[in-house]
Amino acid sequence: MMAALLLPETLDLKAAGPLKASFLSRRGEPVDVDAGQVRRLGGLCLQILLAARKAWAEDGKAFSINGPSEAFLETTRLFGADVALLSADINGVNS
What is the mean pLDDT for each group of 10 consecutive residues in the chain (95 residues)? Predict the structure, then answer.
């Protein structure tokens, strides 16, 4: 069973610590990231998401992003991180 991780609307500097802790507590388990409510994604939280994506790949565990909001998708594109982050399994996105 996948561990669900619901991302908050705002992923800014204040959200970085809790986001990192959320991933650390789920390490070793498949994780399903719900990015549907994200309205603002800052650079530090994006780095945490990228690091988590890489760690899950290295561990051979599933890492999926479910229903990312338009703001989430646009921010990853603007940072040039869409390919690295969104190469994970993505549900609810029409490519």
Answer: 90 98 96 97 97 94 93 95 76 44
d(CA 27, CA 89): 17
The number of folded domains in the chain is 1
Could you give the CA distance from residue 62 to residue 27 in angstroms, rounded to a whole number?
11
Q: CA 67 from chain center: how many Å? A: 11
Structural domain containing residue 93: 42-95
- Tokens 């690091």, residue located: 51
Predicted TM-score of the model (pTM): 0.89
Distance, CA of 22 to CA of 48 (rounded, Å): 11
